[in-house]
From TrEMBL:
<keyword id="KW-0811">Translocation</keyword>
<dbReference type="GO" id="GO:0051082">
    <property type="term" value="F:unfolded protein binding"/>
</dbReference>
<dbReference type="GO" id="GO:0006457">
    <property type="term" value="P:protein folding"/>
</dbReference>
<dbReference type="GO" id="GO:0005737">
    <property type="term" value="C:cytoplasm"/>
</dbReference>
<protein>
    <recommendedName>
        <fullName>Protein-export protein SecB</fullName>
    </recommendedName>
</protein>
<comment type="subunit">
    <text>Homotetramer, a dimer of dimers. One homotetramer interacts with 1 SecA dimer.</text>
</comment>
<keyword id="KW-0963">Cytoplasm</keyword>
<keyword id="KW-0143">Chaperone</keyword>
<comment type="similarity">
    <text>Belongs to the SecB family.</text>
</comment>
<dbReference type="GO" id="GO:0015031">
    <property type="term" value="P:protein transport"/>
</dbReference>
<dbReference type="InterPro" id="IPR035958">
    <property type="entry name" value="SecB-like_sf"/>
</dbReference>
<dbReference type="GO" id="GO:0051262">
    <property type="term" value="P:protein tetramerization"/>
</dbReference>
<keyword id="KW-0653">Protein transport</keyword>
<keyword id="KW-0813">Transport</keyword>
<comment type="function">
    <text>One of the proteins required for the normal export of preproteins out of the cell cytoplasm. It is a molecular chaperone that binds to a subset of precursor proteins, maintaining them in a translocation-competent state. It also specifically binds to its receptor SecA.</text>
</comment>
<dbReference type="Pfam" id="PF02556">
    <property type="entry name" value="SecB"/>
</dbReference>
<dbReference type="InterPro" id="IPR003708">
    <property type="entry name" value="SecB"/>
</dbReference>
Amino acid sequence: MAENQQAAAGSDNQNQPQFALQRIYVKDLSFESPNSPVVFQEQWKPQVNLDLNTSHNKVSDNQYEVVLSLTVTAKVGEKVAYIVEIQQGGVFLVQGIEGQQLGQMLGAYCPTILFPYAREAIDGVVNKGSFPALMLAPVNFDAIYAQALKRKQEEAAGEAKEEQQTH
């Protein structure tokens, strides 16, 4: 009887939502300082631009790779001081989570986990390039994901409206 209860409890655990970080890694990293050493003579008041993107793909039944891509461009006046590009990857176990909740997990929650690692790698490489430390401000991936979702819904609604008008 006790064995049957344990077996039943074990099968319930398989249906429970599960999430686990399995690995974090740098997939790609590049640093360019096209105007060094001249740029070191300029007064250091950089204009910093950050571009970011996320992507994910299914690795196996319950494993997903999420990649956070960041490009940081620092300019002093018109001169590019440096450009850093990083693809910070992570492998996540996601089980029992589907649909919109899965999209939120892969599009916002996982990038939030990856961001501090990417930020640290960027800061380290900028420092090795002999530039002052760069601490990127936190990013609200939930808000970015919500905006992207809204934009997709608006585009889909616009396409449906166009299709109705042509028929």
